[in-house]
Automatic annotation (TrEMBL), chain A:
This is SusC/RagA family TonB-linked outer membrane protein. It is found in: Cell outer membrane. It holds the Pfam family Plug. Keywords: Cell outer membrane, Membrane, Signal, TonB box, Transmembrane, Transmembrane beta strand, Transport. The lineage of its organism: Bacteria, Pseudomonadati, Bacteroidota, Sphingobacteriia, Sphingobacteriales. Belongs to the TonB-dependent receptor family. It is a multi-pass membrane protein. Residues 1-18 form the signal peptide.
Automatic annotation (TrEMBL), chain B:
Residues 344-410 form the RagB/SusD domain. The keyword Signal applies. Pfam families: SusD-like_3, SusD_RagB. It comes from Mucilaginibacter pedocola. This is Carbohydrate-binding protein SusD. GO terms for cellular component: cell outer membrane. Residues 88-230 form the SusD-like N-terminal domain. Keywords: Cell outer membrane, Membrane, Signal. Residues 1-20 form the signal peptide.
Amino acid sequence: MKKILLSFLLLFVTASLAFSQNSVITGKVTDQKDGSALPGVTVTVKGTPGIGTQTDVNGKYSLSVPAGKVLVFKFIGYKAVELAANSSVVDATLETDSKQLTEVVVVGYGTQKRQNITGSVASIAAKEIENTPVTTLEQAIQGKAAGVVIQSNNGKLGQGIKISVRGTSSISAGTQPLIVLDGIILNQGDISSTNAATNPLADINFNDFESVEILKDASASAIYGARASNGVILLTSKKGKAGKAKLNFSSQFGSSKPSRHRQFLNSEQYLQIERRAGVGASLQDFNNGFYDTYQDALDDNAAFVESRLLRYSAGVADVGAANVDWEKQAFQDAPQAIYDLNLSGGNDKTTYLISGQYSDQKGILVGNRFKKYSGRVNLSTKPFSRVEVGMNLNFTNTVNNRISDDNQFSTPMQIVALSPITPIIDPRTGLLSGSLPGSASNYPVYYNPLLSVANSYYNTTVFRTIGNVYGSWEIVKHLTLRSEFGLDQTNQNEDSYYGRLTFRNTGTPNGAGQNTNNGIIHYTVNNYINYKNVFNTDHSLDVTAGTSYEYNHFVGNDIQGQQFPSDAYKQIASAAVKSGGSSSQSEYAFVSYFSRANYAYKGKYLLSASARTDASSRFGKNSRYGFFPAASVGWILSEESFLKNSTFISNLKLKAGYGLTGNAEVGNYPALGLFSGDAGYNGSAGQRFIQIANPNLKWETTGQFDVGVNFGFFNNRISGGFEYYRKNTRDLLLDVNIPGTLGLSIQTQNLGKLYNQGYELELSGDIFVGKFKWTSSFNGAFNKNVVTDIKKQVLGSNDLNRVIEGQPIGVFYGKEYAGVDPANGDAIYYLNTKDANGNFIRTTTNDYNAAQNVILGNPTPKYTAGWTNTFAYAGFDLSVTMQGSWGNKIYNGGGQYMSASASNGFDNQTVDQMAYWDKPGDITDVPEPRLFYGNGVNASSRYLSSGSYIRMKTVGLGYSIPKSLLAKIKLANARVFMNAYNLFLITKYKGWDPEVNADYQASNINLGVDFYSAPQPRTITFGVNIGL
Amino acid sequence: MKKFKSIYLTAFGTALLLTACNKQLDLKPFQSVGQDVAILTSTDVQITLVGAYNRLALSGTYGGGNFLQPDLMATQTIIDWQGTFQDLSQMVAQTITNDNGFVEGMWLSSYQAINQANNVIANLDKVDAASKASYEGQAKFIRGILYFNLAEMYGKSYNDGSPATNLAVPIVLTPTTVVDESSKVPRATVEAVYQQAITDLTDAQNLLPAGNTFYATKNAATAMLARIYLQKGDYANARDAANTVIASNRYSLVTPYTAEFPYPAQIHVDNTTEDIFAVQVTAQQGTNGLNTYYASPDDSGRGDIIVRDNFLAEFEPDDQRAAIYTEDSDGILRVGKFSNVYGNVRVVRLAEMYLIRAEANQRLGTAIGATPAADITTIRNRAGLGNVAAVTLADILKERRLELAFEGGFFLHDAKRLQQSVGALPYNSPKLVFPVPLREINANSALVQNEGY
């Protein structure tokens, strides 16, 4: 009893003591941006640990605070605010902080505080990509992360895009980073049935993303083991937040134009050069003994040229009467409209986000259009205090009106080959030139791509569902189990019909149709546990371990038909001849075990280690399993006593890591010896040998070393980082050329080594703070790629791209053009044989075969950079991103036709060809025109030019209408904006656009080739964003 | 505490491990069959043989490329080349580069077909007794004609210097099972490759049945032997082989001449009565590689080749063979022999046998089977021309040129065996021999490049 009494007394005393010193303070915390309540804000008392609370759903809090203290309001993504607790009501307004926003970073199978990360992770926040007027995520993040190089093949919509994270690590296997959305590996396989790839990421609405994280080094990515050699891109979708429901609507409208045009010959120039080419050919014909006299040759060739000119002028005797700039005909007005609507909210147990997007973009090329309908539901709830379950579901329908690949006569850009003397409308028929009836088989000089616009279509319709359901259970304090099941399902239909007027292109007189269905089911099951705890205040530990199973199944079928009753019938059902059909399937699976431990001592000594074991169906039983460990260390110097109080240095962290990652992105059955049953003959079925077995085939392995420093000065007003890395890739999964006498030309082997080495610099600063705000952030990267060992082979099959030891992948290798022999107009080449001392002999030769192949340039930029400046003043905001790359060359694969000094047929020529050699003594680098003699048109450095460029990638200008005005019409926020994409381009490149790689042949090796490839679009849109 | 946790983790991890099953990793392809189980039965050998025909029919080789490409190198005075394929333009210009894609294509396609044939020959022990001789004969026929073509294209002419030392192509007679140093086979001599072709075709001649639908027959092998012996200058064997084919009476000349090239309606015809062997092209299988370049766009071709009027002037006024050269809808003179996109690529037909027998008899002063004049009369009569009482060698060669123009690559091959110049080049110019493809030189260190490349 005494005891009880004593306790009671004690309690009373304590309480009265508290009473005498504390007062209860209440208040509401709101968002400075729109005045909305902020739930979940941590409210603490400065200098008094142990007292604190969080705001409720309505942003309200109540806290008993000792008198005279200061309240601290903290919330992730917002700048902390300190307010004196000097009245009973203290309201706070928090302002978003772009730097704080990324404080917690998504990493593989978990999250981590940015300060504790010892690997290399680039983060891009939603704000930086939202509402960019482009089709796909990659275009929106171009230039925004150091060492992440993004390059479109051309300006067609929804087409293949190459992403390189710290260079290219493979010659024959995949080079694209792994893409993971909300923990689920996305299917990235291209299932386009043409040679030109489409981009599976175009199916996803990037306005749904909260953040994009790019894991660049082994320490960060090795948790993805055999999938991580090319880096990992982690996408995190937006989630609802507890609080009042928010509705947000935005829409924008605009249009695109080609970034640049290219000049071709007008009629007068064309007639001049073609006639001159006839003369040039005559001398060759005569010298070759094809005619008895030179005059015979001249007469015959002149007659031939004139007959052709008459033909191409639609039979108009005044052959130069028409003067058409066909290049302009390749393009169309390209309007676009994008609408986004999303609703989010929730309470302390359940949150939701529902979003939808409709976009309709026309491409700059005639006939190109991309429509997208996208919806998302993200739902999360806590049915029990220790359990959270939820789902993220995204469904999309895209419709891409595609155009032919760059190597087809029907692709709009090949229209430039048509003669300027050819009228658009044939005066003989009143129809588009090349239309039937009439002389359609050889007029104009090639098939007129405009015929395809009205008489054919090729529509790719994709239905894609990406979803996951997950549950997480806090088994005991600090220990959480998470299970995820994710599905990525793609159903793609490609429907095409080529009408009668496209006969010259298809070769089928009464219509041709094709219908292809391809589907992929891809699912992932992840189970992992996480243990997170702090021991004795100084030791913090975060351990994750689990398993993953991934399965992918492709099913495709295709049917083709010919002989349609009329062009009104476009489905194969109407085809009298079913000319082709096929079906196929393919699958792969991965089974993986992974673990990671992060340890920090006193918040300044950091250690991280991870390991993953992967097994894949793709490899032989002898070598199915791969083990991928990584470790890294970090030291936060700014937490040390000697720097802690520095007013100059606010953050300084050193870090280093090493690890192994793998690459398994090869075909699904490369290890097997195979026969294929596709070898019939006149109706009898047959089989043929297609692949030789390699039972020891295994992973390609990359060992990556990374060292870096992160720094911040003046309370992080200036911050940045610098990193050096070296990636050594060995056991390359290489398609090795084997002697053709084997009946095969390649075998996939683990052969060869290469490395990538480089530096990355990131700098950002708040240059002006206050009413006028200016922040600037720069990123730059240098990468050197060298193939060190492929057993002296020379790989590559296109004009100039090769893989050669000691050189970067795809290096341009061939004959060095030396211009024109002033004496006779022959194209000449440097001999480049070597003398006794190993020096190149620089004499020239007109014998293309005699000239030796030499290194001519690198197709991959050495330096890449991005620079973003944002300004804000009185409701106006402006964001400008410049992006550039340097040190690469581009090969114009179409040069042999379009810049051939009329030596290769009747293709129209680029204007520079008018500088052709005409008479002995002329000094020029354009050879004498010699019709069909191909004077100087063989692949050589003649068609290489610099690919360096700087472009104004994005500009966003907005005005937010003041809240005081909005309150009257009950809007939370409203912003009007203008977006510009590719506003201008600075380059010496001679072609259309230096961001190019001919789509029909683009590969790891075939790089930097322009082949009638469409330029990038220049887009300007205007829009509005409204929230309530 | 920590220890407990790690035990917990380990136990949990192990539990998860057990759920993963290795079975899920044993995934087999759907559209293809393992090399180890592809050829187990007689039927498997038969479908592999069909696969050999399929490869033989590739447009890079007997699907047309092997007849088109030599002719492009030797017809500059009678055609205008309008094509934009640089690699073919190089052939017309007689400046072929060692990385020429068509030169590489012919090499790769030929050896694909040879490997198929080798797969058949190596598995004959699995074949039913009734089919064994035929399968072996067909495989050897395919292999033999491929080696002959390779020797003609990649080696010096048989009559140029010493065929016993001049290099042609590697000889591979076993199917591919591994890739190792033994895969690097050096080039055999022209003599050895000719001999391989003759051996294969002689075996085929002995093994094959007389009739075998559109597949290779005894006469097909004999006819190809006649051609090879003629190319070698072995006139007696050439004459006897040609005579054997004619005397078999299984074939007859199609009248009129143009009907030998069935064309309208683009309907596939297996073989005419004159065809001894033809590579079958249908809508489903194969591409007529001659149609692609010779035929006008009216007939699904690229229309890259225009016949010059001076070639037509070589025909006598009443020669019905000139009628196969017709103007297309644009008034351009085309070779009309390949206007059917689903027409076969004729490899050898009866008329050639008459011409070989006539030439060989003429050279040897014999009259085995018939006199040269009688054979030439046979050829002329079918063309709507009158009899000849006597002929000279030049008459026979002229008849051959007009009869077989643009078939068989004879413009080049005949120029070589007859030691006639080709444009400004002598018959034995290195420029008239294909280079060994650069990719082969790079992949196989045992190979030596041809002169001039």
